From TrEMBL:
<feature type="compositionally biased region" description="Pro residues">
    <location>
        <begin position="324"/>
        <end position="336"/>
    </location>
</feature>
<feature type="compositionally biased region" description="Pro residues">
    <location>
        <begin position="162"/>
        <end position="181"/>
    </location>
</feature>
<dbReference type="GO" id="GO:0072666">
    <property type="term" value="P:establishment of protein localization to vacuole"/>
</dbReference>
<keyword id="KW-0967">Endosome</keyword>
<feature type="compositionally biased region" description="Pro residues">
    <location>
        <begin position="262"/>
        <end position="273"/>
    </location>
</feature>
<dbReference type="InterPro" id="IPR017916">
    <property type="entry name" value="SB_dom"/>
</dbReference>
<dbReference type="GO" id="GO:0043162">
    <property type="term" value="P:ubiquitin-dependent protein catabolic process via the multivesicular body sorting pathway"/>
</dbReference>
<dbReference type="Pfam" id="PF05743">
    <property type="entry name" value="UEV"/>
</dbReference>
<feature type="region of interest" description="Disordered">
    <location>
        <begin position="148"/>
        <end position="382"/>
    </location>
</feature>
<protein>
    <submittedName>
        <fullName>Protein ELC</fullName>
    </submittedName>
</protein>
<dbReference type="GO" id="GO:0000813">
    <property type="term" value="C:ESCRT I complex"/>
</dbReference>
<dbReference type="InterPro" id="IPR037202">
    <property type="entry name" value="ESCRT_assembly_dom"/>
</dbReference>
<dbReference type="Pfam" id="PF09454">
    <property type="entry name" value="Vps23_core"/>
</dbReference>
<feature type="compositionally biased region" description="Pro residues">
    <location>
        <begin position="369"/>
        <end position="379"/>
    </location>
</feature>
<comment type="similarity">
    <text>Belongs to the ubiquitin-conjugating enzyme family. UEV subfamily.</text>
</comment>
<keyword id="KW-0653">Protein transport</keyword>
<dbReference type="GO" id="GO:0043130">
    <property type="term" value="F:ubiquitin binding"/>
</dbReference>
Length: 543
């Protein structure tokens, strides 16, 4: 892509101020901008690790990288130093808000890029360019992405966990009542105090104790009356709560705690779903003294229907386990005295209830210190992160194991080849050692021979030159005679040949030639016959 002319003009004007090699820097930066249009040049102040600052040319933008078949654009920041190209550029990875730096072999946690190409830049500065390094950087990022997506914050636990059920209403005895009711029933309560009934069985008190951590019933109001004939069942007390309470309890004055409801105990707060499922059904009903406060007595003029319907709305799941409601209008005569056959086992009479009219107007709330804190529910976000981390580590381990197993075959073959080469090298080294020893021995022998030859040459220089005739001596006298005869015969033949050439050239007269030739030929013939005779005597081949 062609870079716009005004950008090139601005680039050249910026480089001419402080850069050492303007033309080379201009050429390299222009090529990089032409190849990567996503890079934008500008000048910024860069602070070096030693604290020094300088106004440098800054190329910022993204470079396309093909990673697993998809092209990604990784943000980078490239600073060109003033001594460029003799100094390598500074390259950083600049993640966006949705990314974080992924440290690797070539990127540190601060985002700075390291590579052998940058290390050797100062040595091969004449061959190193920004464009070549960006191409190398793309290959590096294709193998190790420099950034990863930032982990998005998980939704709040309210969106992950199911919505807890609404806070249940206050027990009826804790709910505020109109101020006009206590005086109306005060006279009736003082005129007819209820006698202390026997203590109910433990099976009936257990739901009351689990439902609320308030003080015992004898301290918060009149004691419970005798159970009806169906009191032996754990859940039967909730069937008709109004019919099981004496009329005196409906008209008794409410203490001061009715005017302001106390805070809910810890057990009333919505527990985690696991804890709610673990409680038994007997612990779910409201306290036994709650319904009488919701439903006024029949003689007060209220219809009997709404209190029972209102109680069933608090927990409709118990409709199937409660006994059918009984109409209550005027209290039956045997209400306060159940049949003797169904009375519980005789127990010591509890102490008389305190007079609520004489008590203080403040209610002592039990300290929550003696109440065990509910167990901490599991954190689904933490569990999900741990599960995701375990899966990531497992996948990384599997990939690393697969890579190691795939490279084992090549490494094993390379090891075998290296062992064979090592054995060959060791054998050749042994042979070379033997050859070196042999050459050393021969060199020593040669040096000794040369030294002796030098001594012979020096000694022979002082002796006179020998006669060649004395050196060529036959082993026998006949042999010496044969050497001499052969030499004389050849000399005579040469003399006759020379005389013939001299006659041809006119140097001697023909008569002289004839006379000398006859004399030499006669002597030559005799010499030749004698040579043949000696040769036959010595057993030599015919000449």
């Amino acid at each position: 892509m062609v870079v716009q002319q005004h950008v090139l003009n601005w680039l050249y004007s910026v480089l001419t101020s402080e850069y050492h090699d303007v033309n080379r820097t201009y050429n390299d930066v222009a090529q990089a901008l032409s190849q990567y249009p996503s890079l934008s040049p500008r000048t910024d102040v860069h602070t070096f690790p030693n604290g020094a600052s300088a106004l440098l040319l800054h190329l910022s933008g993204t470079i396309p990288v093909l990673f697993r078949g998809t092209t990604y654009r990784f943000p980078i920041s490239l600073w060109v130093p003033h001594a460029y190209p003799r100094e390598a550029p500074l390259v950083y990875v600049t993640p966006t808000e949705n990314m974080v730096v992924r440290p690797g072999q070539h990127v540190d946690p601060q985002g700075q890029v390291y590579h052998p190409y940058l290390v050797g830049w100062s040595t091969f500065w004449d061959k190193s360019t920004i464009l070549d390094f960006l191409a190398i950087l793309r290959d590096v990022f294709a193998k190790e992405p420099p950034v990863i997506a930032r982990q998005q914050g998980r939704p709040t636990p309210i969106q992950q966990t199911p919505t807890p059920p609404p806070v249940p209403p206050l027990p009826p005895d804790l709910a505020p009542r109109p101020a006009t009711q206590p005086p109306a029933s005060a006279g009736h309560e003082t005129s007819r105090p209820p006698p202390p009934p026997p203590k109910p069985g433990s099976r009936v008190q257990q739901p009351q104790q689990l439902a609320s951590p308030t003080p015992p019933p004898q301290h918060s109001g009149p004691p419970l009356p005798h159970l009806p004939p169906k009191a032996s069942r754990p859940m039967s007390y909730a069937g008709n709560p109004a019919a099981q309470i004496p009329p005196e309890q409906h008209t008794r004055p409410g203490p001061s705690r009715y005017e302001s409801a106390p805070p809910l105990p810890p057990q009333q707060s919505p527990p985690p779903p696991q804890e709610r499922r673990s409680f038994p059904l007997q612990a779910q009903p409201p306290p036994i003294h709650g319904p009488p406060q919701q439903g006024p007595p029949a003689h007060a003029g209220f219809p009997p229907g709404p209190p029972q319907a209102q109680f069933s709305q608090h927990d409709p799941r118990r409709m199937s386990t409660f006994s059918p409601p009984q109409p209550y209008g005027t209290p039956p005569p045997n209400w306060r005295q159940p049949p003797a056959a169904v009375q519980p086992q005789a127990q010591p009479k509890p102490p008389p209830p305190p007079d609520l009219m004489d008590d203080d107007l403040t209610l002592s709330i039990p300290s929550p210190s003696n109440i065990p804190a509910p167990p901490i529910p599991p954190n689904p976000e933490k569990d999900a992160l741990l599960h995701q981390l375990a899966q990531t580590l497992h996948s990384m381990r599997q990939r690393s194991r697969a890579q190691n197993e795939s490279s084992l075959a090549g490494l094993q073959a390379q090891r075998t080849a290296m062992l064979a080469a090592m054995n060959t090298i060791q054998a050749e080294s042994a042979q070379l050692s033997q050859l070196s020893a042999l050459l050393t021995s021969n060199t020593n022998i040669l040096k000794d021979s040369i030294h002796k030859a030098d001594g012979v040459i020096e000694s022979s220089a002082r002796h006179p030159a020998p006669n060649i005739d004395e050196l060529l001596v036959a082993p026998t006298v006949v042999g010496n005679q044969l050497y001499e005869l052969v030499a004389e015969e050849r000399a005579l033949a040469d003399a006759i040949f020379v005389l013939g050439r001299a006659v041809e050239r006119g140097r001697i007269a023909p008569g002289t030639f004839a006379r000398m030739t006859r004399s030499l030929a006669r002597e030559w013939y005799l010499k030749k016959a004698l040579v043949r005779k000696i040769g036959n005597g010595m057993g030599l081949a015919q000449m």
